[in-house]
Amino acid sequence: MLCENCKELPATVVFKQETMNGTTERHLCDKCAFYSQTFSFSPDQEPLSIQQFLAHWLGGSELLQGQKSNETLPDGPKCPSCGLTFHRFLDIGKFGCATCYDTFREQLPRVFAKLHNGNTNHGGKVPVSFNERFALKKQLEDIRTKMKEAVEAERFEEAAILRDEANTVKQQLADGGDDQHVI
């Protein structure tokens, strides 16, 4: 395959970018990849560590000197136990102590959302034994979403019907065993 940019040399570098709209790939030769604005690298430089990669990707301060990020994460509080700041966490890629999790609780959902392309819920496989229970929980979640939309649109009769459906599903869940996760 030839380079998509110069169309002369063989493509040896693949840039893959995943967004919520899908995945795009660009196949470039070493020379075009080196001069690309997408990601700068040098064949002689040491590879980035995972901490450096995450810090760069999440808007860490050390690797972005001289560059402007269109979205910067707030400094956040300083951990009272170990003294770690949020930007330092982004630079090194790990917490200093267990208290850091509580200290940076406000910033973590934003970091996780960015790491997982905006997804904050896991939608993976469910064990066969949980299929019925999972389906009921999903149905209850859908009913509550529809009920909220109906109330916001002032369709109160529809909301009342949905409330009754939600109570029925909730009762089915209760009959199936202990349900601590359904509110």
From TrEMBL:
* Any one Pfam family match given in the protein's UniProt record, by short name: UVR
Q: Which UniProt keywords apply?
A: Kinase, Transferase
Has the keyword Kinase been applied to this entry? yes
Q: Output the SUPFAM superfamilies linked to this UniProt entry.
A: C-terminal UvrC-binding domain of UvrB (SSF46600)
What would you give as a GO molecular function for this chain, any one?
cobalt ion binding
Q: Which InterPro entries match?
A: UVR_dom, UVR_dom_sf, YacH
Q: Where is the UVR domain?
A: 137-172
**Any Gene Ontology biological process:** stress response to cadmium ion
UniProt superkingdom: Bacteria
Q: What is the protein name for this chain?
A: Protein-arginine kinase activator protein McsA
Q: Which organism is it from?
A: Sporosarcina newyorkensis
